[in-house]
Amino acid sequence: MRLTVNGQTHEVDVEPEMPLLWVLRDELGITGVKYGCGIAQCGACTVHVDGAAVRSCQLPVGELTGEVTTIEGLGQPGALHAVQQAWIEHQVAQCGYCQSGQIMAAAAFLALNPEPTDQDIDAVMSANLCRCGTYPRIRAAIKSAAATMRSA
Amino acid sequence: MGRLKTITRRTFLIGSVAVAGGVAFGAYTVAKPHDNPLLTGLGDGEAAITPYVRIDAEGVTLITPRADLGQGAYSVQAALIAEELDVELDQIRVDPGPPSPAYWNTAFADEAAAFMAPGGGLGESLAYGAISAAIKTFGVQITGGSTTVPDGFVKLREAGAVARETLKLAAAEKSGIAITDLRTEAGRVLLPDGTELSYAELAPLAARITPPQDVPLRDPSGWRLIGKPMQRIDIVAKSTGAMKYGIDIAVEGMLHAAIVLNPAQGGALNGFDATEALKMRGVSDVVEVTGGVAVVADNTWRAFEAARKISFDWGPAAFPATMDEHWQALADSFTEELRDSRVRDDGNVEFAFAEMPGLIKAEYRAPYLAHAPLEPISAIVRVDDDRAEVWTGTQIPRFVQSNVARLAGLDTERVKVNVLVMGGSFGHRLEDEVVKRATEVALLFRGTPIKLTYSREQDMTHDFPRQIAMARMRGTVRNGQVDSYELGIAMPSVIASQMGRQSLPGTGPDSQIVAGAWDQPFAIPNHRVTGYRARELAPISSWRSVGASSNGFFYNLGLDELIHAAGADPMAERIRLCSNDEARKVLETVAEMSNWGSDAGEGRGRGVAFTRSFGVECAMVVEVAATEGGIRIEKVFVAAEVGTVIDPVNFDNLVKGGVIFGLGHAMNCEITYTDGIADQDNYHAFEGMRMYQCPEIEVRGLENGERVRGIGEPPVPPTAPALAGAIFAATGKRLREMPFNKHVDFV
């Protein structure tokens, strides 16, 4: 089976029902994507498939139809995505375990909705759980990122 | 080797020791009952040092016994070193260091001592509390109790200062220039002619120089880092997916394991049939471990999937099957026989009750709560014939090392523990069951690293949750004031449960049964706080703020009921009752921040609560609106007295996180047992707070006094009672048990 992740094509020999999450983590060693709940409750496993936010723990790899982007492919030091830059400026992370998923969800959301209201942000981002309680900083970082992306 | 001058005035001195290619600086302890971890084979009388900072060809490395669970412990410790050493934060790398008894957490001992000797209230019989047993036996290399900052505040700065001066001496020797003409900056010694000598190149020379003692610490007015916003050293890695948590680590040749434990926690495994599981792709074996089985496979998901295909014959739980029985056990614990402590007994509550009519009585409950950090627990263990190695995120590396050694039949020093970054803890990683189970599997796969990852369901249902607790309040009011207040608190002993799993004695009273209640700075004329030790029920463990997490709720709720009966204002009466300035100041501060006393508006209400825990006075005001759909939490105001705020950004983030953690659990979380089986196994049933429910939170850190305190836990205890007070103010409904969604809806 062939899949494209962060612009690179990989050949994997796995069952089609294996969730994308575990193909990424255990077969390809891409660990920025996290396992938190396995039932689409926490959002830590969020990646982009052709730009759309997807819960990789719920997507059997056999049903994958597009190119995958993980947090590693979103941006790296020196070439950070605006959302990552905002996350750093606002020092969002505590333990940081949920933040890959939060950042991927926020990036996909802002691509669709460049001028979100506070209600929009709350509505979309409530699907991502943070046990450390960084929500106030996530809100602020999303607003900063939105402003940066609009002015770019 | 190490150098030690006569120790006269202080409890520790900073010294140095040569290490490969460089030098390490750290503290000598006066009574040095434990050997140093980096120096083996020391003879009698030779000095041992607890290293904090290493300087070698690679640069400057913080050697820290304190784990980073997400609270920013690495950054804050790096800042304390860097402040005096004159390096930039981004020049410091972190090495969690080997497990060692030399890393005493003295702040932990201070907390225990306060309870054991609270101003003459306790007799000789309480001289040995449960915590002190652990301290004496193991040394306390534990991260917890918000102790990282108080433990390191002086030690780490002194280590940085002594290291700096020693490096300058080395530079003086090398250059022939007087030390008074040398400056330090960004990891270098600067000579008057502009020549720069890096610490790395000076390190080997510095290792041969006796470090100067009594290097004065810089005056706070000259602090470059402390008190200023800092960029956490892990923030870029945590924003780019680069941070490797325990669950992300791969070791060459490892196999993956999943576990299925008896859902009735602690119950026996009578039998199982793994025929189907063994046929599945990638599965190596299914093996028995204590309390269940482990599936070993070539991939985490394959192990999880195979685990679902096993059928089991389980024995019953080792504790009562229904919640009714748990609550009954607590209700039956308010007896003289089960009295654990009565440290607070001011005036005479019995006389006061007899004297005044209108005795007010109430009962309160706090449920079991899972820790549920977002990263499920995991551990990699490799056992060979003569050694073992562990990779795991843990707050108790010494216990891990000892337990693996015992299970593998090895000497302790033959077990290497690699402490990994943790995706949250809240006390979860003060337990090491995952390491023990992984070791049991690894013993059957000698030479092969076994990575055991708990599924979320196994993690949540086999957590050792926060204690269940019950309190009974009685009190009277007189002339519009609180006159008497008696609070009895019953819970099983967290410390005994936790220490029992480490085979340590849990002797003496457990301070956590009354933590956050017995020592509150309120001068109520007749005031008694009694702890009752319920029998062991479900196994329990330390959960963010431990005893105070339930007792802050009980104490404030009782006070609120009395203040209401007195017809007084919850804020004004608390301030009137304050017996110390710090408490009064934090209350006055939140009163001002929240504009307390102004009209909250129709269908709205404010509640206030105050808890002193972990040495921090923390006051909070919660403001809610009662809407058609339910209660909406709109604003929270927090003031906390911590002595010194080391990093205002991290402080703000941790306090807000504590508030959200406290609110979320108060709203909708509990672990309940049916037939001894936890009813909640994932976040759909244990939700906490979501972003749409998150209020605006305003935080102020007060810096009065000499003490410096950690802030990880103190915001949690006052959160639930402040919310309860606000709901009462808005709706007239008094909530006496958590979670509150049993009685009100939240939007």
Provide a brief overview of the structure.
The complex is a heterodimer of chains A (152) and B (747). Chain A has helices at residues 20-27, 71-74, 82-89, 99-112, 118-125, 135-151, and strands at residues 2-5, 8-11, 46-49, 52-55, 68-69.
Order of helices and strands of chain A: EEHEEEHHHHH
Q: Could you tell me the number of beta strands of chain A?
A: 5
Q: Strand-residue fraction of chain A?
A: 5-15%
Helix share bin of chain A? 25-40%
* The first-level CATH class name of the largest domain in chain A: Mainly Alpha
Question: What is the strand arrangement across the widest sheet of chain B?
Answer: 11-12-9-19-16-17-18
- The N- to C-terminal Cα distance of chain A equals 38 Å
| Overall pLDDT metric of chain A | 97
Given the C-alpha coordinates, what overall shape of chain B results? globular
Q: What proportion of the residues of chain B form beta strands (DSSP E)?
A: 15-25%
Topology-level CATH name of the largest domain in chain B = Aldehyde Oxidoreductase, domain 4
Gyration radius over CA of chain B: 27 Å
Unreliable residue runs of chain A: none
Oligomeric state of the chains?
Answer: heterodimer
- Total count of domains of chain B: 3
* Biggest chain contact: A-B, 61 and 66 residues
CATH superfamily caption of the largest domain in chain A: [2Fe-2S]-binding domain
Quote the distance from N terminus to C terminus of chain B. Answer: 63 Å
Largest sheet of chain A: 3 strands, antiparallel
CATH architecture of the largest domain in chain A: Orthogonal Bundle
In CATH, what is the class of the largest domain in chain B?
Alpha Beta
